[in-house]
Amino acid sequence: MKINAGNLKKGDFILYQNEIWQVQKAEFYAPGKGAALMKTKIWNVKTSKNIDITFKSGEEVEIVEVESRLMVFLYKDNENLYFMDEKTFNQYSVPLTAVSGLEKYLKEGEKLYVYIFNDVPLSVRPPLSVRLKVVKAEEAVKGDTVSSAKKPVTLETGAVIMAPLFIKEGDIVIVNPETGEYTGREGK
Amino acid sequence: MKIVTKAENLDNHKKYIFILKLIDDFLQKKDYQKIDLPVLSPALIPESYLEVFETEFKFLDKKEKLYLTPSPELFLKRLLAYKIGNCYYLGKSFRNSDLPSSLHSFEFTMLEFYKVNADYMNIADEVLEMLRYINKKLKTQNSKLKTKTKNQKLKNQNLKLSFDKWEKISVVEAFEKYADIFEKELFDHQLFLQKARKKGYQVENFSYEDVWSQIYVSEIEPHLGKNGYPTLIYDYPKEFAALAKLNPDGKTAQRFEFYINGIELGDCYTELADWKEQEERFLKEDKQRKKLGKINHPIDKGFIQALKYGLPDCAGIAIGVERLAMVFLGFDSIDKLKVIDIIL
User: Nearest chain A Cα to B200, which residue?
Assistant: First the structure.
């Protein structure tokens, strides 16, 4: 289906230079010379790269109907992440290159949305946050009460993130899986 | 659409109001006369790249169409023809069909000022001095407020720019440097569109102006105002002359825009005083508006009359004040300055 670029919105999948991209940001821009434009940031589902593209708002853009299907994350190897569709029991693999580091924060057995086009899995929708157990954390030095100070902690998936000094082994922390940032601790 | 109250932005809004005051202070110190103007007008300057708001004045059993002004230009130039001298307007302007974004709203605050016996580069000097003035006064105010939150300190570090000089680049130089498009290709419509197609742009069913603008925004703008100084980009192809005087080369117009951090903040012309040429450009723009199906507003004939009477040699600039404040205060959106916002 073709639509005018002026109607693009965040979340749409488009075909651009023969590849599938998801719109991350779309902003109208009238530069005061020539036609109005649509400034977008698009994300390549294959390479997980972001690029900035400016379309003329009247330019036709091919919209791709990509399905997002809830699946169980089974395991990963050096190349792929493996998922299972719980309804059909079909297994799908998503290349690691398409998720750019997201795999470091995924627990086996977790349910995630996988983007599917023509029954081919493209990528994984990053969850807004993940909850992971801290398996290793150094004791904070006594008396160090600077609230902004951070230390490295190891999570159950093996990922190492920077967390506040009060975080202890066994704590469940909340992490933004796209940036690897600590965003909070789960209350006990 | 809805009205959103953002009282949490009051501190930001106060700084914005302070910047408005700095602009007034600066221009008045330099003897520019502030003018208050109507925002509703029965006729406008025809401009094909923008849409206007239309309304009606109803009285007795009659009604008359009125339009919200997309710029104060038509009024200020009349006054200039009456030899009032250097003057400015600082107030609301309106552009219909412009979707709200982080940089723009369909209703916005515009500073437009004119200097007589001046050309666009004289205005450039004036603007640089104004930016320096605003920057200095904001810094002084910030050091007074230093005890405030960490957050504010952070924000004020964002503008690492010197206002000692402009980074000046002509449109021709910029296309060559950033887009690999050479002078010969830039002005020849056919060669330009060919080159654009090779670069992967859609050119079928689009005009030179449309594609030019797309490449300008994609490949040129992101580099402007990022080399330690604000950037002044000047001498646009005559297709973008609007109300600007042409250069002796006949290919470019005396127009400049200026940028900080890749954001366009102002648009300046050496004003076209030739009423015949202006009338021709108006008719062309009006025709284009009709072709595009835009609101068919009356052309301001009094404006042409004023030019006939004699516009003094002058140059003027329009500056988006919310954007300017946003850049100076280190925000990523003009929304952060607003305490009342109308959103879609």
Answer: A17
